[in-house]
Write a structure and sequence with these properties.
The complex is a heterodimer.
Chain A lengths: L4 E6 L1 E2 L4 H13 L3 E6 L5 E6 L6 E2 L2 E12 L2 E10 L7 H4 L4 H15 L1 H16 L1 E2 L30 H7 L10 H11 L1 E2 L6 E2 L15
Antiparallel strand pairs in A: 1-7, 2-8, 3-4, 4-6, 5-6, 6-7, 9-10
Helix pairs in contact in A: 1-4
Chain B lengths: L14 H7 L1 H8 L5 H21 L2 H28 L1
Classes of the chains: A alpha+beta, B mainly alpha.
């Protein structure tokens, strides 16, 4: 049941999940858990964890935290939920039990209190990031592909010696940008409107001396 | 002294233990095939137990039990709906 499970998609893959399942078994067996691992029909693995009084029996059936691992195109799906120890599906005798909807939240609450689900998912994540291959995900900061946005308007042509005669008189002075672009005009004006009286070097109006010959700005 | 419904230490509901001790449950386990006759027989058995309880319980206890049974029925309906929702 979706409300009583912890799910995480881990962006790593391994060719075979069996070593990961074995690592979970080893880790929790050392901690005194009863453990078992079974392959699933979807080429994944399921590990069952139970510990003494931590997991009660329901109608004589040993409940457990079942952790399933399944390969996905975008990583490995790890899912921890309440189930029967060593079984991949809850039997009808449990799910149809009139008190099961009371017992399920109780058992899940005990799991969450001990953070067992978090511990096992974190362990799977460590295993996969150590031994697995990272799945490439789209980088949100990467440059957009060509054509993703409309092309910017063409930049105005720089002043040229081959300018038409009608503009030749203004060629000696910096050519102002088109009046339709005030920002560009301001930049152009701020950077080109001063010329050294000694050597003819053009420089920004903020300069007090010519950067080329040192003549004081007029 | 009546059997407790909850474990004193953990607070867990323990009614499933009593369920396992009932002859009717043991019959189900002994034979997985459930016939119409078995269903009808169990329904009749439950009705009889409820009728006995109704006649024995004082009014306030009967009301409390009615409330608990009604809310349990609601919980089961919710659970089934949630299972449908999850597919």
């Amino acid at each position: 049941m979706a409300g009583f499970e912890t799910i995480k998609l881990i962006p790593y893959t391994v060719p075979d999940l069996k070593p990961t399942a074995k690592a979970i078994v080893d880790h929790f067996t050392i901690q005194g858990y009863e453990t078992t691992a079974l392959p699933t029909i979807s080429n994944g693995w399921q590990v069952s964890l139970a510990k003494g009084g931590g997991f009660k029996k329901v109608l004589g059936t040993q409940m457990a935290l079942n952790v399933s691992l399944e390969a996905r195109p975008d990583g490995t799906l790890a899912k921890a939920n309440i189930g029967v120890f060593g079984q991949q599906a809850l039997p009808t005798i449990i799910t149809a039990f009139v008190f099961w909807p009371i017992l399920l939240p109780q058992i899940w609450g005990a799991v969450q209190q001990s953070k067992l689900d978090d511990e096992v998912i974190a362990m799977v994540e460590r295993e996969l990031s150590t031994y697995g291959t990272a799945i490439d995900r789209p980088n949100p900061y990467a440059a957009p592909p060509p054509g993703a946005y409309p092309a910017p308007p063409a930049a105005p042509a720089p002043p040229s010696a081959a300018a038409p005669a009608s503009t030749a008189a203004s060629a000696a002075q910096p050519t102002p940008p088109p009046a339709t672009d005030p920002a560009a005009a301001a930049v152009a004006a701020a950077t080109t409107d001063r010329t050294c009286s000694n050597c003819g070097t053009r420089y920004a109006p903020t300069f007090k001396f010519c950067p080329e010959c040192g003549t004081k700005a007029a | 002294m009546g059997r407790p419904w909850f474990d004193v230490g953990s607070g867990d509901l323990v009614i499933d233990r009593y369920v396992m001790e009932t002859p009717s449950y043991q019959r189900i386990l002994a034979d997985d095939a459930i016939s119409d006759h078995e269903l009808a027989q169990q329904a009749q058995h439950v009705s009889k137990l409820l009728a006995q309880l109704e006649s024995r319980l004082p009014a306030d206890a009967r009301d409390a039990f009615t409330d608990a049974m009604s809310e349990l029925a609601v919980l089961n309906a919710l659970y089934q709906k949630r299972l449908e929702q999850d597919g």
